[in-house]
Amino acid sequence: MTISRADIIWRSATPFSNQYNDAYFNTIDGLNESLHVFLEPNNVDRGSSIFDKTLIIAETGFGSGLNFFQTIKTRAHSHTKMTWLHYIAAEKHPISSSDFQKILSKLKKNLTNQSLVINQYPETPYGFHRLIFPDISTSLTLLFGDATECYSQLLANVDIWYLDGFSPSKNPEMWSPELFREIARLSKPGTTFSTFTSASKVRKGLEAVGFEVRKQPGFGKKREMSLGTFTKDKTPIESDKPWFGIPETDTPEAVTIIGGGLAGCSTAHSLAQRGVKVTIIEKAQRLASGGSGNRQGALYAKLPISPTKQGELHLSGFLYSVNFLKQLDPQQTLWSQCGVAQLATSDKERSRQQQMLDNGHYPSTLVQHKTALELSDIADSTIKHDGLFFPDAGWVSPIDLCNTLTSHPNIEVIQAQVSDLNFSNGCWALTSNDGDMHHCSHIVLCNAELANQFQETAHLPLKAIRGQVSITPPSASTSPLNTVICGDGYISPALNKRFCFGATFDLKGQNLDITATDHQKNLDKLAHALPSIHKELMEKEITLEGRAAFRCSTPDYMPVVGAAPVYEHFIDNYSKLRQDKNWRFDDAKAKHHPNLFINTGHGSKGLITCPISAELLASMLCNEPLPLPKDLIDAINPSRFIIKNLIKQAI
Ligand code: SAM
Known about the structure:
- By secondary structure, the chain is an alpha/beta fold.
- Among the domains are: 8-230, Rossmann fold (3-Layer(aba) Sandwich); 340-391 and 464-553, D-Amino Acid Oxidase, Chain A, domain 2.
- It contains 18 helices and 31 strands.
- Helix 8 (262-273) runs parallel beside helix 16 (606-621).
- Bound molecules: S-adenosylmethionine.
- S-adenosylmethionine binds at residues 6, 24-25, 61, 63-67, 90-93, 146-147, 164-166, 171, 173-174.
């Protein structure tokens, strides 16, 4: 999973790769080369075949993004600017953001929207990262890792391929039969490609997977280049895990979401941004009334020592949420990018943090070691423990976030408690407790631990975990605090002069009464992490307020996001797994309830997992490229529990 950054040397004004001993682009006229080799042969002014609403371009080597910038510039001047552009690019050696800025500034020509990308450019060494630029109707999904590995994890229907590695003799893995097979899997009849090379190995390799290939004059001194069209029919892919298949849907005109917490509001926003009309049905009088209703929540990812699926989701989700919030609320009225300190309050945690840093999976721009003294300086408060510091992290007001996400002309909120779902005649009927009916074509269940209250989803193992936060009266403490502190619990900088800290974690708690015992637990954690603020509160003998709610958790602590499986069908169809977990199934397509989706189980991580999960669901529903790797989508697939239980012979 670890990949190395680009090692760039400069030869006069040209960026040159030390790893591949080749130039990033034509040194004399890179922009015109990009036009000649990539944009013109693929006619990027066209819309896509799907409703002319989206155009999906995929590139094999993102490098400095020259082709990307040239593409958005060209499209901005064409009649297709209303078409949404999905630009996907793999990159094995991501350029650091400082080199990135240097290259762009050297190009001298005006590449519009550079700063948009620079502001969101991910400083992380691996994984999928979706950056969204609503003002120019574009999203850029960067796949950091080897192109073959990354594209084998992508789910998309690509319209255009820009094949741009270093030359085949210097960079053979970028022109391999394995990569060509992935390119073919992601193509459809009519998909086009172009590349600067006319090497026969490349032409033959692309022909072998279904492209009709021709040559034309190349750019500058290059005699010939190659281009072509995919002419084969799309063949269904055989999967060794058919139960994780994703149902095909028609892009909905309207979607009903049950539950108005962070999961529901994020999903509503992602769909509404795509022009889908959304109705949120929320049982409480206001949004964010359950686990998403705290005044402040910490926005950061607790990273594992070595990458895990959960760590990968949290890191991608954290980076996505930060970029998302930067665009949604640049003034930081509902959040603050004040950084998060994660204290090493025990020997075990200190050694865990040290191992994590020694393993070197995360760049220092993401996480740094700091001494207690340094952390005290950053926080402007006495801290007795060393720890990690996440400079881009901070806190968010989940209630304000939910309200902002749903202030959208395509979103309507109604108050009702849905008690029953019934699908008949191609449509869902929802019955509420007071007998009202609501009809719709598509449903997303975002109602936390109650998502399994319906017969269709009763098999989901969701668990409600009680948590209480404590809130000080205004000005109970005059100590400043400039950053979020996480130890055994967390405390955020004061909001409207009140500190919010906690939270308890109570697996057995059944009710939401505020208890003195839980306040004491929160105070004990505070004393350990921030003794000065704790001392001040104790001296003033203040009365704490509190808020208790249930978080919705799952046995593997991963959220539940995707289509709702038909339980009985899974049990019948995949029963052989009880005898052999490696059983190969022929023709064992997964069956799902029609247009019924789930987004729940975010535990206390909703601030980093809800926005990316919402983007995933909205992309699934609208037939767009998915923003996460297939392995990670499988790891949060609602079907996983049935399959695990079959293998364990527990059902
Ligand atoms: N399109 C780029 C631009 O506009 O700057 C130039 C691309 S440069 C010729 C080739 C890129 O492919 C480099 O950034 C290189 O790091 C990347 N690359 C090389 N091998 C790769 C691989 N196996 N997977 C993904 N990227 C790779």
